[in-house]
Amino acid sequence: MKGHVFHGPGHSAWEDVPDPGIKEATDAIVRVGTVTVCGTDLHILDGDVPEVRPGTVLGHEAVGEIVDIGGDVRTVRPGDRVLVSCITACGRCRYCRERVYGQCRGGGGWVLGHLIDGTQAEYVRVPHADLSVHPLPAALDAAEAVLLADVFPTAYEVGVLNGRVRPGDTVAVVGAGPIGLAVVAAARLFAPERIVAVDLAAARLDAARRLGADAVADAREAPEQLIADLTGGLGADVTVEAVGAPETFELCTRIVRPGGHVANVGVHGGPAPLHLEELWNRNITLTTGLVDTYSTPTLLRMAAAGWLPTAELVTHTFPLQRMEEAYDVFARAADTGALKVVLGGEQHEIVPFEGKPTEGGDGS
């Protein structure tokens, strides 16, 4: 079969790899139909995740069909259409019993495309399948459903729930990439008074408005002043860092009000300053976290009912064999306007944010 293989920082290729097989009785083998590329995949290629070994198939999000299962798998069977979660859960360790699946100590957590071969291939082995794949509603389109493998659970759990968004809040989302935009959409479910999106790219700020942001700010044009003006000088109740850069993290700590919450979602490849000399007396709550995906079943029901604008994030589609082209388009988002690129699945017309239709599979 073919897979997208990491060969060290800056090097990867779509090439022949061994077919996966059942190794444990809790495994499932999934024929991959639809995948996407995550910002974390770009961090891996940049060398920010050194535990990923050369030779690893990348990817941790997929929709596909079960083709084989181990003898202990009970919740799915061959022929089932499923969502492959970005997080694998053994279901037995202390963390899994507390639904903190991202910290699983039984061979789970974030392993796909990280510690073992991932989903950017024609087939993938999924350990602990009973808690790590989810049957899909028939009405849910694969290109939309794949965003529930990581993007929306991360935004919902690590951004909105960890940030404790409440009715009447002012929520500032710093970074309007796919995760930040999903935070905007998910925060709306909690009836905040206003959501402010901050980014450098005008196209992404326009997308944030379409997804529910009440105000937007160019990161180069004093977003602190806009937040101050909107809140009477108080600051945002919740700030969500959705980039993974020192500058954006510091901005979040500057614009949050005393007693507010800073929810860090971004993947940081290096240190970020924490100015405790300024924050120690402001009663700030700072949360970090890897997504646990305990919310995935709920989000699947919400998506099937039309409550989550997943399709709004898909700007480009490709066949699986054009994986390297898809990575290039996603990595050059400032030039291409890419938010989420989807590979395989149902190749249908997507209307990107530039306003010109993109024919499925051509990536233009």
Automatic annotation (TrEMBL):
<feature type="domain" description="Enoyl reductase (ER)">
    <location>
        <begin position="8"/>
        <end position="343"/>
    </location>
</feature>
<dbReference type="InterPro" id="IPR002328">
    <property type="entry name" value="ADH_Zn_CS"/>
</dbReference>
<dbReference type="Pfam" id="PF00107">
    <property type="entry name" value="ADH_zinc_N"/>
</dbReference>
<dbReference type="GO" id="GO:0008270">
    <property type="term" value="F:zinc ion binding"/>
</dbReference>
<keyword id="KW-0560">Oxidoreductase</keyword>
<keyword id="KW-0479">Metal-binding</keyword>
<dbReference type="InterPro" id="IPR013154">
    <property type="entry name" value="ADH-like_N"/>
</dbReference>
<dbReference type="InterPro" id="IPR020843">
    <property type="entry name" value="ER"/>
</dbReference>
<comment type="similarity">
    <text>Belongs to the zinc-containing alcohol dehydrogenase family.</text>
</comment>
<dbReference type="InterPro" id="IPR011032">
    <property type="entry name" value="GroES-like_sf"/>
</dbReference>
<dbReference type="InterPro" id="IPR036291">
    <property type="entry name" value="NAD(P)-bd_dom_sf"/>
</dbReference>
<dbReference type="GO" id="GO:0016491">
    <property type="term" value="F:oxidoreductase activity"/>
</dbReference>
<protein>
    <submittedName>
        <fullName>Alcohol dehydrogenase</fullName>
    </submittedName>
</protein>
<dbReference type="InterPro" id="IPR013149">
    <property type="entry name" value="ADH-like_C"/>
</dbReference>
<keyword id="KW-0862">Zinc</keyword>
<dbReference type="Pfam" id="PF08240">
    <property type="entry name" value="ADH_N"/>
</dbReference>
